Amino acid sequence: MSDNFDVKLEKKSYLPEYSYRDNSWIGEYEPAYQRFLDDPERFWSEIAHELEWMQPWDNVMEWEHPYAKWFTNAKLNITCNCLDRHVNGDKRNKVALMWRGEDELHERVLTYRQLHAQVMRFANALKGLGVRKGDAVCLYMPFVPEHVVAILACARIGAVHSIVYGGFGADALNSRIRDANAKVVITADVSYRRGKTIMLKSIVDEAVTNASCVEKVVVLKRTNLNIELMPEKEVDFYEIMANADPVCEPEVMDAEDPLFILYTSGTTGKPKGIVHTCGGYMVGTYYTTKYVFDMKDSDVHWCTADPGWITGHSYIVYGPLSTGATVLISETVPDYPDPGIWWKTVEDIGVTIFYTAPTSIRMFMKYGEEWPKKYNLDSLRILGSVGEPLNPEAFEWYYRKIGKARCPIIDTWWQTETGMHMLATLVGDKMKPGFTGKPIPGVIADVVDKDGNPCAPGIGGLLVIKAPWPSMMRTIHNDDERYRQYWNTVGNYYTAGDLAVKDEDGYIMVIGRSDDVIIVAGHNLGTAEVESALVSQEAVAEAAVIGKPDPVKGQSVKAFVTLCVGYKPSEALKNDLIYNVRMSLGPIAMPSEIEFVDSLPKTRSGKIMRRVLKAKDMGLDPGDISTLEE
Ligand code: ATP
Ligand code: MG
């Protein structure tokens, strides 16, 4: 990468600060961050002491580059903190999970006591199938309460879960089952999506045909289709549960024992099997749920992700349940039966913390504000975002149309690899549209050049994390060399693979992926800036830009654009869009080509896959597209 990488940082429209954060816990940002810097081990150990351990640790952290051990020799079971602690404390009959299917006729509620009881029974049922500590179990399920039960049941007995999003096809499932060497697969007869019934079990049938590691398949029957189960190999979810003992003592886990394997989204390449361990992950997700979301006992938390993504693992299951929150889970998509369904859900249930991805927000913008306007969104208190840069335009819309200029927008930057939030704008802090925020206390992040020197404010570079944190990945399954690369690319830092820029206040803006960087006339361009400049125009719903080889400039910018409802492609509009980008970012960033498209290629978790656009445009092989949405 060449060194000139200036980013235009506009000092505009910083939004009001909020003062209602409860500061009794970690406290205000600055002093909390300072306390962390003064004594990191003490900072983490104080948080860890709020949780239950079977045996305390010898050392908070041991580091031998690039391998970290956190809470060494401590013993625990994460389910004790997510369940037993509440059942034995004051939350026995508090609602743990609320589930809503595709309509309000399908709702279920589980208290902490009920969830605990089901988890213990299903944990014993898994033991009955021969699952032991350290065995891998693959979950390929619809988003129903049993999915959460199955996740926690694995953790209860020390089985390593590997969740595969229920929208993947047989090949993607097969390769993940084999990579993780799963002994058991847990699935359901069907899932529902946009009113359609998807035969999940037949996808599993296909996926396990040449996966000899799989000994048993557990099938949750949701319908009266009564599909035949193959004797010996296939068993019924509730039948094995009914025959299991009700009490399952938690397996004693070492802090460094693996908790799960999870494959990344595959936005920039072949998905990597990220390995997380029990102790550090528990502390990191507990801390960030409580601090970043400012979680209170009265909150109703709705994270719209699926458990198949890290966001679902950390901020639907482990984080919120470890804090004793009430968690809403829902099988809906944002625009079926209509684009008001999520807002209706917020109103009906009284959601207070809402956490979603920019792709959904941009989709809502495309349909217009009349949809959220139909519902009362007064219960909302905090609005979160994760997954991609939240462009200023989408930020403003989310802030005004959903939050009614009342709720802080908490943008959170993190990765499957990091396990927990790393950068965020905290409740009570100044919000800057376009910027994610600052490293949270506990995290040392920076923007550096390729030699590891910090970049000055306004100069873009590589986003790195300079010190280990509890919930960092420990390795990549079957590819430790790839793990080491994360810590050996720039100095001794962890390189995230993202490009970013800092401002004078230390706020960080993610400007793209290092794999997607565009170099025009020796000048580096992140994709996010140009895309945001396009999306800021009324007609544009979403945009993706790529670099194309150019004989004079090295590369030129090509933009793919989808339009909002009510706009039609035309030459005049093209020229307008190009002109406006030129005006806001200068000639370097000006697209030389614009193509109107109906939709952009995305991962199933909703991220734009620029490498697919680029390959297609240049007639090249797109590489691994197993995570491409249909
Ligand atoms: P792969 O690593 O396989 O290419 P992926 O990086 O999309 O896939 P995830 O771990 O799901 O897999 O996503 C993490 C990435 O998502 C980050 O590296 C970053 O690029 C992007 N991201 C997440 N949150 C934010 C955010 N708040 N702002 C900007 N980008 C974000
Ligand atoms: Mg990644």
TrEMBL record:
CDD domains (UniProt xref): ACS (cd05966)
Record keyword Isomerase present: no
Residue ranges of every copy of the AMP-binding enzyme C-terminal domain listed in the record: 529-607
Annotated signal peptide: none
Annotated ranges, domain Acetyl-coenzyme A synthetase N-terminal: 29-82
Annotated keywords: ATP-binding, Ligase, Nucleotide-binding
A single cellular component GO annotation: cytosol
PANTHER family referenced in this protein's UniProt entry, alphabetically: ACETYL-COENZYME A SYNTHETASE, ACETYL-COENZYME A SYNTHETASE 1
Family (UniProt): Belongs to the ATP-dependent AMP-binding enzyme family.
Protein name as it appears in the record: Acetate--CoA ligase
Source organism of the structure: Methanoplanus limicola DSM 2279
